[in-house]
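Go through this pair.

…
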Amino acid sequence: MKRLTILLFIALSMTAALGAFGAGAASAETTGLLCTTASISHECGSAYAKGTEVTATLSSSLEIKGANSLLVNKCTGSSIHFNYNGESGLEYKSASFSGCGKAMTDATSGELVVIWKEGTDNGSTNAFASTFFEMDGGVYSLTNEGVGTEVVGGTSPKLVFKNAPLVGVSGKTYSDLTLTAEYSLSPTPMYVEKALTPGNLCETAPVSGVCSSVYPAGTVFTATQVPKTTVRIVGAFSVLITSCESSTIKLKYNGFHNLSYAGSSWSGCVHPTSDISAGSINVKYRPGSNEALYGGTGQLLKVEGTPFGTVTLGLLGDGIEITQGASPKLKFNSAPMSGLSTGAPKMSGEYTLSPSPLYIGS
């Protein structure tokens, strides 16, 4: 099974078609994205942009050991620079090493491919066509299996090597080497979440997840707040920003994975709340699920007279879903919003959607 997994990794890397694939009888490995926010569902709503420079700075000593755990080299300083490709790849730019018993120099090429670890904000990494450093006349790389290499997501993210196997690529090389080191990562925060498939809005139930009849471009969907319910938006420490007894949100479909804000109205609110509607939300498809996740951009509304002053708020892309079917609904489940520097505001509420029926498919 290990040999099969390696072959799959190599094939996927060569075709640049990374996705979900088997890694064992009871688990699956899924492409990981580097994300600016954590997701309850571990589905990336806001990924770092393509071209983002990711820097790893050594926060503990770096140790290279050989057979029988014999210490071959130790360094007190190191940094690794990557370019993020906007998907699963961390492309090597350069590396430096200092305070080493044996001189180590930069020999970086290729990339590390990030694989999301199920149920976490973390990811393992695998090296493809990569070299890492030169030492004692030999050039070394991490192995394609990704054993012992992990991106630990969070507000203080880390790149951790724990007895990660090294292979000699060229020159005079040692055998049975392993690398142990811990690096802090920037920018922060950084989370590893799984990628989602773009979704379409369907007029009829999808067959095997595929839409046979997509709503036409230009269709305006109206979300109407469910009667006798309250929409609430709270800030840090659950401080109320506003609550409204009645509201509508209009969304214009482009026919392909995207809904633009097309106006909103808000009444019965504890603070003056008005429409901005500058931005859009992207439809994401969850295979085998009755719901779709949205990632938001731009601004949706403005609230005046709050404990935080006047705030403009936009959806960030988590905790937002559609319940499909003959009576579809749009739900905000403590959905994070932009607009405050001290903690993300969160929106809760439930809306009916028209036209109907409405389904999500790929």
